[in-house]
Amino acid sequence: MFSSIRWRILIPYALLILVSLTGLGIYLNNVLYQSQLQNLEARLSDSAQIISDSLSNDLANELSTSDITARAEHWADILDARVTIISYDGTVLGESHTDPTLMNNHIARPEIQSALSTGYGSSLRYSQTVQYELLYVAVPILRDEQVIGFARVSLPLEQIESQRAQIRRTIIIGSVVTIGAAVILSIFIATLVTRPIRSLTREAQQMIEGEATKYLPTSRRDEVGQLTQAFNALVEKLQTQISALQSEQGTFTAMLQQMTDGVLIVNENGRLTLFNAAAERLFDTRESRAIGRSLAEVIRQHQLIDLWQQCIDTGQEQFIALELPRQGTFVQSIAIPLGEALPGHILMLFQDLTRIRRLETVRRDFISNISHELRTPLASLKALTETLQTGALEDPPAARRFLYRMETEVDALSHMVSELLELTRIESGQVPLKLKSVKPRKLLTKAKERLGVQAERNRVVITLDCPKNLPPVRADRPRLGQVLVNLLHNAIKFTPEGGEIKLCARQQGDKVLFSVQDTGSGIPADDLPRIFERFYKTDPARSSGGTGLGLAIARHLVEAHGGRIWADSVEGEGSTFFFTIPTV
Ligand code: ADP
Fold it and tell me: 47, 170, 310, 342: most buried, per Cβ within 10 A?
């Protein structure tokens, strides 16, 4: 409280006034006292001299004590003072206020001693006789140059004291009034000076509390005006910096949230201070729940906690690639110490390598599958040629049989190669689709007709369920026909005798949903997501015939039409293949 400007102005003022008034008061008091004392002494001295002169003759006539006392009382009345007449040996002969016979010898009194030696004596002291402070003045009574006694006049100092008290009172009242005026004046000055400062402080306070900043109006040219201008300049600069920081932070946040890699920052206490959207997905938790909690609590993966610990211990970047079994993902994590920027903080990045790993697996499987597909016909061709070379040529009927088998193998190989080529061309967009308006029912009927003979041979019934009023789809008729044939072909192949295959089409929003449903062997759940890959077969012995390319071709053709293909299946009960094609 006392540190405010108001008090800083007021306290020195008040002290100064108090000290100067007190000093002045004491000084005046003393000066006045001394001068009053001098006046009084002069008056008493004159009175004593007059009494001395008038008693000079009478005392020689040896007046009685009562006469002298009567004289003393008479003088005392006139002078309004105490009068004492003392003989040359100190005996009190007459006294105006007390019985002289009761008074002891006065020769030793300082004023009498002084009057005896110098002809004049004065003394200021407390009187035991009258019980208050008195100023005594004594002069000798002379007769023929001989001291025959002393006239002493004295007055109490009460009067002077009361005057001194009056002066003290005046000074005290004056001081109080002046200090009061100084207080009011300094409050006024302080208010005047501090008002703009207080409003500056209020503004700054509001800025701290996050309220919108505004400029302070100022027309003053003094220091406060300069301070206000400086404050306004500061506000402007701050605003520019804040908006720059906000936009930078916005960019940073957007970037962080859009990143496909998980990013988090762990502080020196092992608690999370940053957790982006990709990290939320990866560790299946919300940012609001993760922030402030410990790394171990949120990620619950000891290898990652070890990685963070190693990074702290070594102060170096650390890598690890691991599978997160809970999430079913494969990640590569990098822990980076943030060094001087944020001491003790570790940045952890998580790259989801699941897709890359899956692509690698697909590629590996593709190479192994294609080798497998090629090895069987090539091995059988090699065996057939060797048999022919080792003598079968000499046996024309056998040679013809072998040649026929060789032709079948070569046909299978060239079929596979042409399917592969076709797939590659579709994949690379080299097959331009001739999109036309095609009626779904017509497509289904055509596919059913084409595979009717094969279905009959396998004793499988194909039924068709397609409303007549279905809107036409935008499709390349032969290509979409090929998709249906591939699906229907598989359905016939994997459905045992007596089974049933249902061909359906239904409208679904702006698309038509086609489906091929069979009552065949079904597809194991683990294989289901992979059957659309090239060369993928559910049968590990790859004994079902076929190249494993039919569904891959179907998928690419459907996607080239702007549709989607997928399958549902229950092993042992049958499968349903669905695909959608946009309507015209
Ligand atoms: P393939 O030419 O070998 O039939 P596809 O790409 O057409 O190759 O099919 C891939 C694999 O998907 C097949 O080998 C088979 O294991 C499985 N499959 C496809 N359709 C069906 C179906 N209707 N019922 C059961 N399994 C199927």
Answer: 47
**pLDDT (tens digit per residue) in 144-177:** 888 889 999 998 888 777 877 887 888 788 878 8
Cβ-based neighbour number of residue 214 at 10 Å: 11
Residue 196 tokens, joined: 């703009």
**pLDDT recorded at residue 319:** 94
d(CA 207, CA 239): 10
User: Of the candidates 496, 502, 532, 500, which has an alpha carbon nearest to the alpha carbon of residue 517?
Assistant: 502
Residues written for the chain: 584
- Residue 337, SS3? strand
Ligand 1 atom closest to Cα of 577?
A: 23
Residue-averaged pLDDT of the chain: 88
Residue 371 CA to residue 367 CA, distance in Å, equals: 6
Q: What phi, psi does 285 have (nearest 5°)?
A: -150, 160
Q: Are β-strands 436-438 and 329-337 bridged in parallel, bridged antiparallel, or unpaired?
A: unpaired
Q: Which of 376, 515, 537, 542 to mutate to test the pocket of ligand 1 (most atoms within 8 A of CB)?
A: 537
Protein residues with CB under 6 Å of any ligand 1 atom: 486, 490-491, 494, 518, 520-521, 523, 531, 536-539, 544, 546-552, 575
pLDDT of 545: 66
| 280 φ/ψ angles, rounded to the nearest 5 degrees | -60, -45
CB 160 within 8 A of CB 40: yes
Q: How far is the CA of 515 from the centre of ligand 1 (A)?
A: 15
Secondary structure of the chain: what % helix, strand, coil (to 5)? 55, 20, 25
3-state secondary structure of 548: coil
Report CA(524)–ligand 1 centroid distance (Å): 11
Tell me which residue has tokens 């005290």.
172
Residues in CB range of 22: below 8 A, 6 or more apart: 171, 175
Structural contact between residues 129 and 103, judged by C-beta atoms closer than 8 angstroms: yes
User: What is d(CA 70, CA 78) in angstroms, rounded to the nearest whole number?
Assistant: 12
- How much distance in Å is there from the Cα of 538 to the middle of ligand 1? 7
Nearest Cα to 580, choosing from 37, 175, 561, 5?
561
Return the SS3 of 332.
strand
For residue 507, what are the CA distances in angstroms to 28, 441, 466, 502? 118, 12, 10, 17
